[in-house]
Design brief:
Layout lengths: L10 H12 L8 H15 L6 H19 L14 H12 L12 H17 L11 H6 L29 E7 L3 H12 L4 E5 L17 H7 L15 E5 L2 E5 L34 H5 L14 H16 L28 H11 L44 H7 L3 E5 L1 E8 L5 E10 L2 E14 L3 H9 L26 E7 L15 E2 L15 E3 L5 H10 L8 H10 L3 E7 L9 E9 L5 E6 L6 H18 L4 E5 L40 E3 L14 H19 L1
Parallel strand pairs: 1-2, 1-8, 2-5, 3-14, 8-16
Antiparallel strand pairs: 3-4, 6-7, 7-8, 9-12, 9-15, 10-11, 11-12, 13-14
Length: about 725
């Protein structure tokens, strides 16, 4: 791909002059020399190609404006780069304020300048691998380091293991597992180790740790918020639409849009890029309706199983996958038979002041349990404390995902075939409505190839949106609205987690870039808060990237978007910035749901998911509670300025983080999709093994519950297949 060049080429000189005033030199190179000379032409020819015409036109009009202001006419031959630096700054400020004297026509000078500022900031504050931060110059300015000095960095696996070729897939298996994330990966392992022949189907590719490098523009977490680039661990925009249905109508959206509700799609699913917080749900989480009643308009219900029934499976997940932590201090921890297999990871610098603040307020705290090796475990080393964890793959392979734990065990049996780049389009039923096969599709040599694979059992772990979509795309004469959907329950009760909390600025240094970051948590507000249904956990957050910190401080009004003050401000405030936040226990709504959009299809011609509804208004009480408690905690910890967030009701379904609930389990087919063992009602050989099963989603990260349920559901399936 050829780098972008403006027409005429001399406009590149104007761009250089502009960039070097937006990111000026101090005791460091200016933006152009720091790497934006490489980044901007490349990005404007690639990911941001749609913005190239705006930038090109804007550069010409900037020179035109310069002439109009400084030489008395538009053909004076004076360009922006000819002005003194102070004059350039004044012109930028006035244009950003909407004061344009020359005729800009349809091009908005403010939009043009803000576009260059945004793209420039992405390059300048982003990772060196994208070319805009040459040799990490901006990282050194703020003190950010990806890993502690001198920390060992073991070489990850050079290539993924060989997967089964499309032509080599057998026509029949004991079980087909769709999706290789937390639920599907565990299910494949349990079944294969029980002696069954398994096909594990993954629509993404098998990315190595190196393939999931810390790309600060395309990391899963950043894409979910900002949406400027296709995610590394997700599907590309091309051929992967969804439909977002809101109050103003329907709109086709793509994976970089937050309304798409992106989940990682690669072997290992979300476990490849998750933050790995490994909380157990507490006993109250399984009986929310009994504790609180059912708010009007909600579908709040009790689970058909208890904490005590799931506890042995929690323990199995903690020890087989690997969790580091210490449950002491967790006010809502349920009974447990064994401790965690590893001690907590090392603490970030903010833990000490937060511990002092919690003691002053009388709050109980505990370390954050993490699916990360704090010591050598299961044949892999312990975390070295790198600062790029959530949203990225672990370069040292210390994060425990299904790709490096249970899936290798499944492969080692010789009874598990893994196919990647393959989609499950629908489940195939016979004349009596029994599921007998799954229809698969893959792209090959520019076309689409399809085949059906028969099996005795089918376990679905594609995520709450895609599992519901698969069932809805599998109608039969007996179930015309989709498999298991005669009671119109498939796809309903879609939920995730809204977050609330507070940012804070300290006088002391509280960010030492020791990762992963989450070090201290307070669980005192999980339940029994007056006037609130549920609540949530609060903890300090992951180490922010410089680009995240820039965007946060800009949104808080603490730094300008450009100029010397922006760079010096971030340099001063990055080490003093902290955040305490947590997920709010959402009250499910039957109107927040996944349906099909028959008129919109993916690259394979299959109707895509349509997302509609919004979280229940009861959640606002929990959000306000967590924001208030986070503010109090940070102030007691010595913060000089605190900025609460998250107290506004969302207008779209809450599925971007921790999507769950669309195939909820229950005791009654009229109000649920599966029985307490994950079997789809009316289909004893079809089970769900992902968070679609969740009746409620807890006030904590739900991945450990997904893992535990998968062990439970797949274990029963293995017994019934024997």
């Amino acid at each position: 791909m050829e780098p972008w060049q403006p027409t005429p080429p001399h406009r590149l000189v104007t761009l250089r002059a502009l960039v070097n005033r937006l990111f000026p030199a101090d005791d460091h190179p200016a933006g152009w020399e720091a790497g934006l000379d490489t980044f901007l032409p490349r990005i404007l020819a690639g990911d941001a190609a749609a913005l190239a015409p705006l930038v090109e036109t804007g550069l010409g009009l900037l020179d035109h404006e310069t002439c109009a202001r400084h030489a008395g006419g538009p053909s004076c031959g004076v360009s922006f780069h000819d002005l003194a630096e102070g004059e350039q700054d004044v012109l930028i400020e006035e244009l950003l304020a909407g004061d344009a004297r020359a005729e800009w026509g349809v091009t908005d000078p403010e939009e043009f300048l803000r576009t260059v500022v945004r793209l420039g900031a992405q390059g300048f504050w982003g990772d060196p691998g994208n070319g805009g931060n040459r040799d990490g110059v901006s990282w050194r300015l703020v003190g950010y380091r990806e890993r502690p000095d001198g920390a060992p960095w073991p070489a990850p696996e050079p290539d993924p293991p060989a997967v089964t070729d499309w032509e080599a897939v057998a026509g029949h298996y004991d079980a087909v597992v769709v999706g290789s994330g937390a639920g599907g990966g565990v299910a494949a392992c349990v079944l294969a180790e029980a002696g069954h022949r398994v096909l594990l189907v993954e629509r993404g590719t098998w990315l190595t740790p190196a393939g999931l490098r810390a790309d600060h523009l395309r990391g899963q977490r950043r894409v979910a918020v900002h949406g400027d680039y296709d995610p590394t661990a997700g599907p590309p925009a091309e051929g992967n639409p969804r439909v977002a249905a809101g109050q103003e109508g329907e709109e086709i959206v793509h994976p970089a849009d937050h309304r798409w509700s992106n989940n990682a799609m690669t072997l290992g699913g979300g476990t490849r890029v998750y933050g790995a917080q490994a909380w157990r749900f507490c006993p109250e989480d399984f009986r929310m309706a009994s504790v609180y009643g059912v708010p009007e308009g909600s579908s709040l219900a009790d689970w058909p199983l208890t904490y005590e029934e799931l506890a042995p499976h929690y323990e199995r997940a903690e020890w087989e996958i690997g969790v580091s932590g210490d449950p002491r201090g967790n006010a809502f921890a349920g009974p447990r038979a064994r401790p965690y297999p590893m001690p907590p990871v090392r603490a970030n610098a903010v833990a000490a002041p937060l511990a002092r603040g919690a003691e002053e307020l009388g709050l109980s705290t505990s370390p954050v349990p993490l699916l990360i090796n704090s010591t050598a475990y299961n044949g892999r080393g312990g975390c070295v404390g790198c600062a790029a964890c959530v949203g990225f793959g672990c370069p040292g392979d210390f994060k425990n995902d299904t790709r490096n734990t249970v899936i290798p065990r499944a492969l080692a049996t010789g009874r598990c075939d893994v196919v990647t780049g393959v989609r499950a389009e629908h489940l195939v039923t016979d004349s009596g409505g029994r599921v007998v096969a799954v229809a698969l599709a893959t792209s090959r040599e520019g076309g689409v190839e399809r085949r059906q694979v028969r099996a005795r059992a089918f376990l679905l772990g594609a995520g709450a949106i895609e599992t519901a979509r698969l069932l809805l795309n599998s109608p039969s004469a007996r179930e015309p609205g989709g498999l298991g959907n005669n009671h119109d329950q498939v796809g309903r009760h879609l939920q995730g987690h809204g977050y609330a909390g507070a940012h804070a600025l300290f006088d002391e240094v509280v960010q030492d870039c020791v990762g992963p970051g989450p070090s201290i948590a307070c669980n005192d507000f999980r339940h029994h808060n007056p006037g609130v249904v549920g609540g949530g956990m609060l903890a300090n957050d992951f180490v922010p990237t410089p680009l995240q910190a820039y965007q946060t401080l800009l949104s808080l009004g603490q730094i300008p978007s450009w100029g010397t003050a922006a760079i010096r401000g971030l340099r001063e405030l990055y080490p003093r910035l902290a955040m305490v936040t947590g997920p709010v226990h959402e009250v499910p709504s039957p109107e927040s749901r996944v349906t099909l959009a028959p008129h919109v299809k993916d690259a394979f011609g299959t109707p895509v998911a349509r997302l509609s509804g919004r979280p229940h208004p009861s959640d606002l009480g929990g959000k306000r509670l967590l924001a208030e408690r986070a503010e109090s905690w940070l102030r007691a910890s010595g913060a000089r300025a605190v900025f609460p967030f998250g107290t506004v009701r969302a207008t779209t379904p809450s599925a971007g983080q921790h999507q769950a609930g669309t195939c909820r389990m229950g005791d009654d087919p009229a109000t649920s999709v599966t029985d307490p063992w994950g079997r789809v009602w009316g289909h004893a050989n079809v089970r769900v093994v992902d968070a679609s099963l969740h009746v409620t989603n807890g006030g904590v990260n739900p991945v450990l519950t997904i893992l535990a349920l998968a062990y439970r559901v797949a274990g029963r399936a293995a017994e019934e297949l024997a």
